[in-house]
Amino acid sequence: MATKEEQETLRLLVQHVARGFYEPKYIIILDQLARHPVLKDDDLAGRMGLQAKELNKLMAVLGNDRLVQVYRQNELKEGAQRSVGRQYYYIDYKHFCDVVKWRIAEMRRIIDSSLRNELDNKGYICPQCGKSYTPLEVDKIMNFDKGILVCEICQGEVIDNENAESVKGSQDRMQRFNRAMRFVIEGLRKTESMVLPALDVPSWITNNVVDGDKQKAGQPSSLKIAGSSGSGRQDEGIGIVMSMDKDEATRQQERDAEAAAKRQQNVLPAWHLKSTISGDLTALGIQESARTIASTSQTVLASSDESLKGLGTIGPSRVPQVTRQVEDVKPEINHEADCK
C-alpha cells in the first residue's frame, strides 16, 4: 500500500499529465479518478453531470490512450430478474507511468528528428554580402581548387547559415518542450523509486460497493424529497370535513344566480330590442320582454312551491261528508181500530 506522500505524488502526476495534454472535461475525469481508487459508471456520470452515453464517449478516448482502465461485470439488483452490465473505472498507476514515459520519449524523438532535418537543410550565407544559398545550390559555388564554397557575387567564402529563422526555432523547440514537461518529468522521476502494486478491483468492489449497499439497505434513506421541509414531523392524520345539505334559501339564491347568468348570456344588443330612431320596442324587443316576464313568473311560482312543501300537498279542497244514522223505530199498533 502506497504511503500518503506517494499517493500525493501520483495524484499530482495525473493532474499535470491531464492539464498538459487534454481538454477540461477530460481533466475533470482524471482528477476524480485520482481522488478515488475506483468509480462506478453511474457515480462518475453523476459527478460529471453527464448522461451515460456522453460519459462512455469520453472514457473511450482515455481508454484508447491507455491512461484509464475499465472493469466490467454483470450485477443483479434486488427484485430484478435480469442482470445489468456495470463498468468500474480506475487508474493503474504502474501502467499509467509507463504510458506517460513512452509518450514523452516518442515526442522527444519526433522533435529531435525534425530538428536534424532542419539543421541539414539550413543552407549557407556569405558573411561579406549576405547572399544566401540553399543546399541544392552547392554545386554552383563549390571551388574544387581551394575546397571551399565561394560566393558568386563577392568571391568571399560561404559559411553555414546559423542565423536562419528555421534554425533558431528548431534549437528552441526542444528547450520549450523540456520546460513545459518539467513537472511531469519530475513526477516520473519520483515514481521510479516506488513499488506500485496492482489494484485488485473485484476485491475492492466486494469490500466497498457491496458492503455500502448493504448498509444503505439497513438504514433509512437519507435522500431528501424536493419540497420537503426536513423537520421530521409525524403525520398528524387525515382530516374529514363533511358538508351538510344546503338550506332552501341557499338553493334559491343559486337558482336565481344561474337564471340571471343565462339571461345575461342570451341578452340581445340594445339596437335589436329598440328602434334607434323612435325608441319603440321592435318585434324582437316585444318577444324578449314577454319571455322575461314569463321566466320571472315561473321563478316566483317555483319558489312558492318550494316554500310550501313543508306545509303539505297542494291540491283541491275536500268537502266534508255527513253520515246520517237511521234509528229503528217500532211501529205503534192501534188495537182499538182493529176491533172496530
Automatic annotation (TrEMBL):
Domain HTH TFE/IIEalpha-type intervals: 10-101
Gene3D superfamilies reported in the protein's UniProt record: Zinc/RING finger domain, C3HC4 (zinc finger) (3.30.40.10)
One Gene Ontology cellular component: transcription factor TFIIE complex
Record-linked SUPFAM superfamilies: Zinc beta-ribbon
Region annotation (Disordered) ranges: 211-236
Single biological process term from Gene Ontology: transcription initiation at RNA polymerase II promoter
Pfam families linked to this entry: TFIIE_alpha
UniProt key word Zinc-finger: no
Alphabetical UniProt keywords: Transcription, Transcription regulation
Entry-linked InterPro entries: TFE (IPR039997), TFIIE/TFIIEa_HTH (IPR017919), TFIIE_asu (IPR002853), TFIIEa/SarR/Rpc3_HTH_dom (IPR024550), Znf_RING/FYVE/PHD (IPR013083)
Family to which this protein belongs: Belongs to the TFIIE alpha subunit family.
Name under which the protein is recorded: HTH TFE/IIEalpha-type domain-containing protein
